[in-house]
Specification:
Shape: globular
Structural class: alpha+beta
Distance between the termini: 29 Å
Number of helices: 3
Order of helices and strands: EEEHEEEHEEEH
Helix content: 10-25%
Strand content: 25-35%
Radius of gyration: 15 Å
Number of strands: 9
Largest sheet: 5 strands, antiparallel
Strand order of the largest sheet: 8-3-4-5-9
């Protein structure tokens, strides 16, 4: 697959051929339809937010189609979904229990801890994707609205359910 990769802080992204990743347990493989550019991506690329590793595929405002399922994920093939900045959280800490998963000490972020959407394919934790109706023009930037949960994003797009 083609991907735009951050290989060095402060330098332009580099077009690379990478293997299509395989989904692990609880993950889905998405064929990326769109990925918006967020200021956070620029902060990472410029080194203002140090990347946890290089090379890194940026991009956390992802819209894509589920093309493969990892172990334990059912019934989502072909679904159109969004992926936001929050890639995973523990689900058990006081922040997660209050619905403030972005504050979880175990939180991991798309395009930062996990490769993001500046590629033809990307992986996402199935529980941290949100379904999108066909033809939703507003979908990609919703992946970055601060404090917006998957259920809030889908309600904003008119589905009303996560």
């Amino acid at each position: 697959m083609r991907a735009m990769v951050l290989t060095e802080v402060g330098r332009p992204l580099v077009l690379r051929e990478l293997p299509v990743p395989a989904p692990g347990p609880g993950e889905v493989l998405l064929q990326v339809e769109a990925c918006a550019v967020c200021r956070t991506d620029l902060h990472i690329a410029d080194g203002e937010l140090p990347p946890p590793r290089l090379p890194l595929v940026l991009g956390h405002q992802v819209v894509g189609r589920v093309v493969a399922l990892g172990e334990g994920v059912e019934g989502r093939l072909g679904a159109r979904v969004g992926v936001g900045w929050l890639a995973s959280a523990c689900g058990a800490c006081k922040f997660c229990r209050r619905g403030e998963e972005n504050l979880c000490p175990e939180a991991r972020f798309t395009g930062y801890h996990r490769d993001g959407g500046y590629a033809e394919y990307t992986l996402a934790r199935a529980a941290f994707t949100y379904p999108l109706p066909e033809g939703t023009p507003c979908a990609s930037p919703l992946g970055c609205v601060p404090g917006l949960s998957a259920s809030g994003a889908t309600a904003s797009c008119g589905t009303g359910t996560p």
